[in-house]
Amino acid sequence: MPAKYNRILLKLNGEALAGEAGWGIDVPVVENIAMQIGRVRDLDVQVAIVIGAGNIWRGRDGLKRGMDRATADYMGMVATVINALALQDALERNGIETRALTAIEMRAVAEPYIRRRAIRHLEKGRVVICGAGTGNPYFTTDTAGALRAMEIDADVMLKATKVDGVYDRDPMIHPDARRFDHLTYIEALNMGVNVLDSTALSLCMDNDMTIIVFKLSEQSSLERVVCGEPIGTIISR
Predict the structure, then answer these.
(1) Can you list the pairs that 109-118 forms with residues at least 24 positions away whose Cβ atoms lie under 8 Å?
(2) Nearest 10 degrees: Cα torsion 85, 216, 158, 168
(3) Are 234 and 210 in contact (CB under 8 A)?
(4) Rounded to whole angstroms, how far apart are CA atoms 78 and 85?
(5) Angle at Cα 175 formed by Cα 170 and Cα 180, nearest 5°?
(6) CB 147 within 8 A of CB 134
(7) Which residues contact 63 (CB under 8 A, 6 or more apart)?
(8) Maximum distance among all alpha carbons in the chain?
């Protein structure tokens, strides 16, 4: 099946790398994600990734103990780079050329993020992993994902989650929760959906960037959504 999109931005939560344990890095799980990304690359789709750090560090846990907000956020940015390197390693062991770029310079382990450089890597067929969020405190990696999607002129932003779309309430707690196939940006903002923060949603709305929220854990889910199958929830105009 041919791909619907030429260039995608995949937003991964850090928890996606943790597996059932919910924390740390589960190597077989990361390898499974790498294989899914590899199958999408085989469709000649250019893939950029923004990754979170919830499996290693959550800034709000530090805030509860009186930590300075900026310090807690910078710690989270550093943790995203750990995840980026783990995913880069898994991708390259599967024969997929990859570049890790960071918003905070760490030249010993990754290239600094430069928009034109990231686009050039994508044009050469390399998977680009963007670490360290936006490089600024007070912004989530969801917002970083929306920002990078716009900067690289992605066709769509794909938000991988633990559930198969957007619900009117938590389906893990409420079995009768209603799933939506489509939402407008305004509807998503008014609902206060938990899968994306309001800043990321507003940025996508202002720049007409379509978002697809889907469940990553299935073996072929990423490939299916890239080929345009109606899975997950579409958030658009």
Answers:
(1) 109/81, 109/85, 110/81, 110/84, 110/85, 115/151, 115/152, 118/48, 118/148, 118/151, 118/152
(2) -130
(3) yes
(4) 11
(5) 60
(6) yes
(7) 69, 72
(8) 52
CATH of 7-236 given 1.10.3630.10, 2.40.37.10, 3.30.70.260, 3.40.1160.10 = 3.40.1160.10
Mark the ranges of the chain whose per-residue pLDDT is less than 50: none
38-66 pLDDT tens trace: 999 999 999 999 999 999 998 778 888 89
Total residues found in the chain within this entry: 237
The token duo for 98 is: 């990859």
Domain boundaries, the chain: 7-236
The SS3 call for residue 134 is: coil
pTM, rounded to two decimals: 0.94
